[in-house]
């Protein structure tokens, strides 16, 4: 009896702790989303004295959202969606082939190259910005979609995830396919890649979110107004002189909502594949 009561109390304490953590994490997000529906003069009016009016707007307006869609943000949405989807398609193809090669083939310096692949996604991006920009300029990619897409085509973490999946496939299956006359290209394209659906989904989510959140590289490599992406468009609502808080919160909440869609659809695959990668 006492043991059961102790378990119930422990369970209740866990749920209470999780609820508190959830509230602390979600409250800032809720506040700025609701602030996007407030008139500009009301956004910070009740911020100092925390109360019900801080969380629930006393007046609702859609003017901030209307202003967003009348600005460059609509173009930025198109650019980001195009860049993200194109990068996902190209990156899944490139990284899955690399992962397949590391899992199946034996070649000189294989382990050294794989270590370099692992180091590539641990390296701060800022440390390679200058050489990357120099290469992009030499290839004539600056201020093109290519500058936003091609540098992200190869991803060390995604290569690692595909390698772990292909390693889990018994070697006998590859050998049986080879005995039946299948080429390595056929084995990769018709047999192993269709089996890697969860890994493809998890990789797609990682690449999409990474590209959707990109700010520093698009700001440098594609400064043309026609190539502005979502994060740059959001940041342009802030300046040294003044900040349009209503439009800033509105554009940021739209950016979060769009990124949330693939996350909710693919999160279960991500959890499953990351668990596989740790085993």
TrEMBL record:
GO terms for cellular component: plasma membrane. The chain crosses the membrane at residues 12-33, 80-105, 112-133, 145-166, 187-209, 247-270. GO terms for biological process: transmembrane transport. Residues 77-266 form the ABC transmembrane type-1 domain. SUPFAM superfamilies: MetI-like. It is a multi-pass membrane protein. Keywords: Cell inner membrane, Cell membrane, Membrane, Transmembrane, Transmembrane helix, Transport. Its main location: membrane. It is found in: Cell inner membrane; Cell membrane. Part of the ABC transporter complex UgpBAEC involved in sn-glycerol-3-phosphate (G3P) import. Probably responsible for the translocation of the substrate across the membrane. The complex is composed of two ATP-binding proteins (UgpC), two transmembrane proteins (UgpA and UgpE) and a solute-binding protein (UgpB). Belongs to the binding-protein-dependent transport system permease family. This is sn-glycerol-3-phosphate transport system permease protein UgpE.
């Amino acid at each position: 009896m006492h043991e059961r009561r102790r378990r119930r109390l422990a369970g209740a304490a866990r749920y209470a702790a999780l609820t508190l953590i959830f509230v602390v994490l979600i409250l800032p997000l809720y506040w700025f989303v609701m602030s996007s529906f407030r008139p500009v003069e009301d956004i910070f009016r009740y911020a100092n004295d925390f109360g019900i009016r801080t969380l629930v707007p006393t007046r609702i307006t859609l003017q901030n959202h209307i202003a967003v869609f009348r600005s460059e943000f609509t173009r930025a949405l198109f650019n980001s969606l195009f860049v993200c989807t194109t990068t996902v398609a190209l990156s899944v193809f490139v990284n899955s082939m690399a992962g397949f090669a590391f899992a199946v083939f034996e070649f000189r310096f294989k382990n050294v190259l794989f270590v370099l692949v692992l180091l590539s996604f641990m390296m701060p991006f800022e440390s390679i910005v200058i050489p990357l920009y120099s290469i992009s300029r030499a290839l004539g990619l600056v201020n093109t979609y290519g500058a936003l897409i091609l540098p992200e085509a190869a991803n060390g973490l995604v290569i690692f995830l595909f390698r772990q999946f292909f390693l889990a496939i018994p070697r006998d299956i590859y050998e049986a396919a080879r005995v039946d006359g299948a080429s390595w290209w056929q084995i990769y394209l018709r047999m192993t890649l269709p089996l890697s659906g969860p890994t493809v989904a998890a990789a797609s989510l990682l690449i999409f979110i990474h590209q959707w959140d990109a700010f520093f590289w698009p700001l440098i490599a594609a400064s043309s107004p026609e190539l502005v992406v979502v994060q740059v468009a959001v940041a342009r609502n802030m300046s040294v002189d003044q900040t349009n808080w209503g439009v800033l919160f509105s554009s940021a909440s739209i950016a979060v909502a769009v990124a949330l869609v693939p996350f909710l659809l693919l999160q279960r695959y991500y959890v499953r594949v990351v668990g596989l990668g740790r085993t």
